[in-house]
Amino acid sequence: MLISPLGENALTVSFGNIISEDLNRKAIALCRILEQAPFPGMIEAVPAYSSVTIFYELIVTRNAFLEYATAFEAISVLVEGMLQYVDISELDDPRMHKIPVHIGPEASLDLDSIAESRGVSPEDFLAIFLERTYRVFMIGFLPGFAYMGEVDGRIAVPRLTSPRTNVPKGSVGIAGNQAGIYPRNSPGGWQIIGRTDLQLFDAKRVEPCLFRAGDEVRFVRV
């Protein structure tokens, strides 16, 4: 484990530098503990693939822990103490989402070319993609954009060499061994294989993001 500062009002707790479900579950478990017992000045704990970034109000946190030289030092000690209580077996069973995906010339912008690059037909490429259950490792890039994994190695493809200036909302894409869905029109370089009509982010909802870290996803062709 490595704890490092991220500017003056945040720090990152890193458990490794790989895509790992166990490390991701550890990151989520630490976030849950922090959410249940926030320290003075804590704003948010955000899980990533194998790390957690903790944001805090510098002055509030500093004044609450005057026995330490810095707010960073105080939170580091606090987190190290919390880690002994991190138990990934106590996490709730993951929520399952079934995502309807449209396939066709207008929706599957890169399907033919990337299927050819992997030496399979478009139908076989889709069959391989659809047979898996994907884990939501983290939310990032855009509000509601879920980084999912892992894509079968037979169909893992790199990002576009030249990103698009506008990827349509709902586009389902692949980048390396990751899958994702664009929650709004946006520039982007992921290889697009389909599109969904689901609203992935709505600020008016009680829980604005459809997904959260730790969820599971199945894609269903419609």
Lateral strand order in the biggest sheet? 5-13-6-7-10-9-12
Largest sheet: 7 strands, mixed
Estimate percent helicity.
10-25%
Order of helices and strands: EEHEEHHEHHEEEEEEEE
State the end-to-end CA separation: 44 Å
Mean pLDDT, to the nearest integer, reads: 95
Radius of gyration: 20 Å
β-sheet strand percentage? 25-35%
Care to give the gist of this entry?
It is elongated and about 65 Å long.
What does this protein structure show overall?
With 222 residues, this protein is α+β, with helices and mostly antiparallel strands. It has five helices and 13 strands. It has helices spanning 21-36, 58-64, 71-82, 111-117, 122-130; strands at 2-5, 10-14, 42-47, 51-56, 96-101, 134-139, 146-149, 164-167, 171-175, 178-181, 186-188, 191-195, 216-221. The strands form three sheets. A seven-stranded mixed beta sheet has the order 5-13-6-7-10-9-12. A four-stranded antiparallel beta sheet has the order 1-2-4-3. Helix 4 packs across helix 5. The model has no long low-confidence stretch (mean pLDDT 95).
Features:
222 residues, alpha+beta, 7-stranded mixed β-sheet, 5 helices, 13 strands
Per-chain topology:
Blueprint (H helix, E strand, L loop, with lengths): L1 E4 L4 E5 L6 H16 L5 E6 L3 E6 L1 H7 L6 H12 L13 E6 L9 H7 L4 H9 L3 E6 L6 E4 L14 E4 L3 E5 L2 E4 L4 E3 L2 E5 L20 E6 L1
Parallel strand pairs: 5-13
Antiparallel strand pairs: 1-2, 2-4, 3-4, 6-7, 6-13, 7-10, 8-11, 9-10, 9-12
